[in-house]
Design goal:
By secondary structure, the chain is of the alpha+beta class. Helices cover about 50% and strands about 10% of the residues. The protein folds into three domains: about 5-95, Double Stranded RNA Binding Domain (2-Layer Sandwich), CATH 3.30.160; about 100-190, Tyrosine recombinase, N-terminal domain (DNA polymerase, domain 1); about 210-395, hpI Integrase, Chain A (Orthogonal Bundle). The strands form two sheets. It has a four-stranded antiparallel sheet, covered by helices on one side. It has a three-stranded antiparallel sheet with strand order 5-6-7.
């Protein structure tokens, strides 16, 4: 006779174990101490075998019957249910061992081997670190969109909408890597694209008016703070690299005889070596700087450590002390200033300006051609721009 929940609840233990059948090999074993244990007997390859399904009522009567039907389905396919259950337990343990942090660490190691820039690597580590307390120890295959939303909402609550967006994107990269390496079959970040507050797009502040730029230059050349900071800003104006490229520059990259600064591919945004011609004015500033930091590796070491680089906030903080707000001038803004004024001059090919800025388009052949073709023009442009800077900072109204 089939069992019922009422009958199961009413069972009383006896001195010896008793077996109560539900049919199809499923039965409940009642121990003398009162425990009620589900068992399922079946025959495979001519041998009688028994599986333990758990204890009642944690495993309900309905659960036990579902197990019985699953076993029947496996037997029909010629699969040993005991072996199948063992394999599932092993798979689950392996899945639980593959945490989000383990996959993230593996992914970061992978992109490091592929030669991603240190700045890119550090940025990804920092972004992932914002979510690790919430999902780092969780099995990657079990993480849900709701779990990922927890750290994202916390970041948003601080008003950091762009950071939240980047954290979501970086977490998505980890999940796509996990999918590609058979650790999971789902990227839960996909469904969160519309859940986050869209950041207001704002361009980095830059002075693009010639007279206003002259005022900025005068303030920089008259800056009375740390001389290394003043020289960093002067070189930003003359050479307009990305701020990180200048802050991390090493003396071994400067060829004073050939007047060339060679930036290695490892530090370039587009992962290509980039050479910049140095004007006489830039070389003079570098000579002055060499007297201060030339005994070390870095052009601009940190104040607290000769092995660390100047803080990314140092130049912007100096601009604030000069009276320029973050909406008026930033260290990155020198690139826009130079690009605008060089293009407005009408004296230089736009592609030569783009080459000097180390901007990269889609056509690889065209890029290689222009790098070679425009070198001589870029050398002349560097000298002309240095002369323009001298003129602009000297014109006081």
């Amino acid at each position: 006779m089939a069992l019922t929940d009422t009958a199961l609840k009413a069972l009383k233990p006896t001195e010896k174990p008793t077996k109560h059948s539900d049919g199809g090999g499923l039965h409940l074993l009642l121990s003398p101490k009162g425990s009620k244990l589900w068992r399922l007997s079946y025959r495979f390859d001519g041998k009688q075998q028994t599986m333990a399904l758990g204890a009642y009522p944690a495993v309900t009567l309905a659960d036990a019957r579902r197990h019985r039907e699953n076993v029947k389905a496996l037997l029909a396919k010629g699969i040993n249910p005991s072996h199948h259950a063992k394999l599932e337990r092993i798979t689950k343990r392996a899945s639980n061992a593959v945490t989000f942090k383990a996959v993230a660490d593996e992914y970061l190691l992978k992109i490091a081997k592929e030669g991603k820039a240190d700045t890119t690597q550090n940025k990804k580590e920092w972004l992932l670190g914002l979510a690790m307390p919430d999902i780092g120890s969780r099995p990657v295959s079990e993480i849900t969109a709701a779990e990922i939303l927890v750290p994202l909402r916390r970041i948003e609550a601080k008003g950091n909408y762009e950071t939240a967006r980047r954290v979501r994107s970086t977490i998505g990269q980890i999940f796509r890597y996990a999918i590609a390496t058979a650790r999971t079959d789902n990227d839960p970040t996909f469904g969160l694209k519309g859940a986050l507050t869209a950041p207001v797009v704002s361009h980095r502040a830059a002075v693009t008016d010639k007279k206003a730029f002259g005022g900025l230059l005068r303030a920089i050349w008259a800056y009375e703070g740390m001389p290394e900071t003043r020289m960093a800003l002067q070189l930003m104006a003359l050479l307009y690299p990305r701020p990180g490229e200048l802050r991390q520059a090493e003396w071994s990259e400067i060829d004073f005889d050939k007047a060339i600064w060679t930036l290695p591919a490892s530090r370039m945004k587009m992962r290509r070596e980039h050479r910049k011609p140095l004007s006489a004015q830039a070389l003079a500033i570098l000579e002055e700087l060499r007297a201060l930091t030339g005994d070390g590796k870095l052009l601009f070491p940190a104040v607290t450590s000769r092995t660390g680089t100047m803080s990314e906030n140092t130049m912007n903080s100096a601009l604030r002390r000069m009276g320029f707000t973050q909406d008026e001038a930033t260290s990155h803004g020198f690139r826009a200033s130079a690009s605008t004024l060089l293009n407005e001059s009408g004296q230089w090919a736009p592609d030569a300006i783009e080459a000097e800025l180390a901007h990269v388009g889609a056509d690889e052949v065209r890029k290689a051609y222009h790098r070679a073709l425009y070198w001589d023009e870029r050398v002349k442009m560097a000298d002309w721009w240095a002369g323009e800077i001298h003129t602009m900072k000297s014109q006081v109204e």
